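Obj.: predict assembly geometry.
Materials: sequence records (below).
Method: joint structure prediction, all chains together.
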Amino acid sequence: MTRSPLRIGHGFDLHRLEPVAPEGTGRPFVLGGRAFDHPVGPVGHSDGDALYHAVTDAILGALGEPDIGCLFPDNDPRWDGADSALFIEAAAQKMREHGFTVGNLDATVICERPKIGPVRDELAANIAARLGCPADLVNVKGKTHEGVDAVGEGRAIEVHCVVLLCGLAE
Ligand SMILES: [Zn+2]
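Observations (raw structure tokens):
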């Protein structure tokens, strides 16, 4: 990888939301490592944590590494129902191996419910703990989709994330 003191990465993730099993195929709603008591949950091979997935892809993208789907294929039974903390921690490990540390990270969660505002600090702290960086380098904010399209109708959750990585002195 060409050495650059700063590298930026972008991550995006979306999961369809369905009634939680046994009523439907949704998994229990988990976001940023936090469980929510919610009637619908993400459909996905792992635990479906869209925030952890977007953060993972942002870091991998900054490093020029293959994305989360390449590293943890959704046809591999090892990742069936997996705790997505595994993925974000694997990305953090690669970041350290490449000699980088988190400059700062900003994520936007888009869903109608649950409300993200009241728990944004907790979600940011969870991400920071997984990445091994101070919590104030991580920002999480919530938005709704104004009732339009699948996200606005509560049938999907979407997360966007950008991260800046800073190279450590060699
Ligand atoms: Zn995902």
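Conclusions so far: The pocket of zinc ion is lined by residues 13, 15, 44, 50, 53 (CB under 6 Å).
To do: check interface contacts against the pulldown list.
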